[in-house]
Specification:
The protein is of the alpha+beta class and 100 residues long. It is 26% helix and 39% strand. The chain is built from three helices and six strands, in the order αβαβαββββ.
Length: 100
């Protein structure tokens, strides 16, 4: 098993994730692209001391970017990312989202 802090990279805080948190007790994290659902569930349960009911993952493909500079045209690609939508048991909460 990988290190817990290496699996969970950062929380994702947007308007949509705030609505998910308030309506259905779901929290969204950006995770290591190599992590699977079992590792994500174990990391969340140990780090925040909560009970995880469900984990859904999505891979976000990086966009292609083109920059025009004096030296010419440069093309590159942003890195791929993976996010996990974690559903907690009723009554559990993660306080890190309330402080932001």
């Amino acid at each position: 098993m990988k290190e817990l802090f290496g699996i969970i990279l950062k929380p994702v805080i947007t308007e949509r994730t705030t609505m998910l948190k308030e309506m259905s007790n779901k929290f969204v994290f950006e995770v290591d692209p190599r992590a699977n659902k079992r590792e994500i569930k174990a990391a969340i349960e140990k780090l925040f001391n909560v009970t995880v009911k469900d984990v859904k993952t999505a891979i976000l493909r990086g966009k292609m970017k083109t920059v025009f500079m004096r030296g010419g045209r440069f093309e590159g690609k942003k890195p791929d990312r993976k996010k996990a939508i974690v559903t907690l048991a009723k009554g559990d909460n993660i306080d890190i989202f309330d402080q932001v």
